[in-house]
Amino acid sequence: MKKIVITGVAGFLGSHLAKVLLSKNNKVIGLDNFSTGKKQNLLAFSSNPNFIFIDMDVSLEKVKELDELNDIDEIYHLASPASPAFYQKSPFDTIAVNTIGTKNMLDIAKRNKAKLVYLSTSEVYGDPEIHPQHEDYNGSVNTWGPRACYDEGKRLGEVFCYLYYELFNLQIKVARIFNTYSAGLRNDDGRVISNFITQALKGENITVYGDGTQTRSFCYVDDTIKALMLMMDNDMANGELINIGNSEEISVIKLAELIKKLTNSSSVITFHPLPQDDPKQRCPNTKKANRILGWEPKTTLEEGLLKTIEAYRTKLNDK
Ligand code: NAD
Ligand code: UDP
Q1: Which of 5, 22, 199, 268 has the largest count of CB atoms under 10 Å?
Q2: Quick one: CA torsion of 30, 35, 41, 42, rounded to 10 degrees?
Q3: What is the tally of structural domains in the chain?
Q4: Which ligand has its closest atom nearest to the C-alpha of 14?
C-alpha cells in the first residue's frame, strides 16, 4: 500500500484524484485550507479508513513538521486557486502557494525520497504566439496585469521543481494542465464551462466575454487524472515538463452555442467586456505526453459536456 499526499484535496481535481487513488487501495493524506475547496468534495471518501485529512495552508513552514508527512511515497501538489475569478481575489496567496508552498512540498519530497508531480498550467504560455503550444515554447506572459500572480507564480513553481530536480536528483515531474472540466467544478467557480452550463440550465443569459472568437481546448477530468497518475508512475517523466490536455479546440462563442443546443436552453447569448490579458488562443501539442506516457485523451468535448450537463442538472434539481 503506497502512502500518497495530495495538496488541494478539497478542490475539483484533488478530490477526483483522491477518489481514484483510494479505490486502488492506497493510503491518502489530503491537505487543504478550503480557500476555494469545499468540505462537501471530501464526503465521498472522508470515512474511508485509508484517508487522513489535514486542514492546513501548505504555504506555512509548519507543514513540514507534520508527523503524517513522514514515510510517504508520492506527492501530488495541486493546492492553488485555478479559476481567474478566485486567483485574482487572492493574488498574494496564489503566489505564496505556488512558490513557498511548492518549495515546502519539495523539501518534504526530498526528506522522504518521495516522487512529486506539480500541477502547473497552460497559463505559463500566457497569450501565446505559437500555436498549438509545445513544451519548448517559453511563453508570452505579462508581468503587469491581473493574471500575472497566477502565471508567474506557476512559472516560479516550475523553477523550484527544476532546481530540486537538478540539484538533488529527485523524481520530480511537472504537468502543464490545459482547461479541465466536469461537474466537479463549483457552480460559482467562474470558469467558462461551469458558468455556461449553470446559466443555460437556469435559463439565464449566457455571458460571452469579448466577441467569443478566443479559443480554448477542454479536457474531461477522467483523462487528466489518468495522465497525472501515469506521470507519477513513469520514470521517463522525471525532470520533464509535459502538456496534459485535449487538442479539440473551440472558440468561446461556438462553445456557448453548443452548450445552448445540448441543454435545449432558451437562454440568450450576451456579450461582455473581455478581461485584460485573456489569451486569444490555447491548444496543447500533446505529442510528448503521447510519446512518454502513451497517453491521449479519450473523451470528446461533446461526450464530456453531455455527462457534465446531466450531473449539473441533478445538482441543481437537488437544491
Ligand atoms: P480548485 O480551486 O478546485 O482546487 C484547488 C484546491 O487547493 C482548493 O481545494 C483550495 O482550497 C486548495 N488550496 C488553495 N490554496 C491552498 C493552500 N495555500 N493550502 C492548502 N490548500 C490550498 O482548482 P482545480 O481546478 O482543482 O485545480 C487544481 C490544480 O490544478 C491547481 O494547482 C491549478 O492551478 C491546476 N490547474 C487546473 C486546471 C483546470 O482546468 N482545472 C488547469 C490548469 C492548472
Ligand atoms: N469566459 C466567458 N464567459 C464566462 C467565463 C469565461 O466568455 O462566463 C471566457 C474567458 O474570457 C476565456 C475563456 O472563456 O476566454 C476561458 O475562461 P476560463 O475562466 O474558464 O479559463 P481561462 O482559460 O481563461 O483560465
Answers
A1: 5
A2: 30
A3: 2
A4: 1
**150-167 mean pLDDT:** 98
The CATH number assigned to the domain holding 103 equals 3.40.50.720
- 150 included as an active-site residue: yes
pLDDT tens-digit series, residues 19-35: 999 999 999 999 999 99
Per residue in 54-64, pLDDT (tens digit) is: 999 999 999 99
Whether residue 95 has its Cβ less than 6 Å from ligand 1: no
Given a cut of 90, is residue 289 above it in pLDDT? yes
> Is any ligand 2 atom within 6 A of the Cβ of residue 215?
no
Same domain, 141 and 259: no
Q: How confident is the model at residue 288 (pLDDT cuts 50, 70, 90)?
A: very high
The range of the structural domain enclosing residue 228 comes to: 3-180+219-244
Pull the grid cell for residue 184. Answer: 466537479
Domain assignment present for residue 292? The answer is: no
Q: Quickly state the pLDDT bin for 315 (edges 50, 70, 90).
A: confident
Q: Identify residue 184 by its one-letter amino acid code.
A: G
List, for residues 199-233, the tens digit of each pLDDT value: 999 999 999 999 999 999 999 999 999 999 999 99
- Regarding the beta carbon of 285 and ligand 1, being less than 6 Å apart is answered no
Which position among 76, 150, 165, 181 bears the catalytic label?
150
How far apart are the C-alpha atoms of 316 and 319, rounded to whole Å? 5
Please state the atom number of ligand 1 nearest to the C-alpha of residue 186: 3
- What is the spatial distance between Cα 87 and Cα 151, in angstroms, rounded to a whole number? 10
Q: Are residues 203 and 110 in the same domain?
A: no
The distance from CA 227 to its chain's CA centroid, rounded to whole angstroms, is 12
**Protein residue closest via CA to atom 14 of ligand 2:** 192
- Work out the angle at residue 118's Cα, subtended by the Cα atoms of residues 117 and 121, and round it to the nearest 5 degrees: 130
Decide whether any atom of ligand 2 lies within 6 Å of the 173 Cβ: no
Quote the CA–CA distance of 117 and 129 in Å, as a whole number. 27
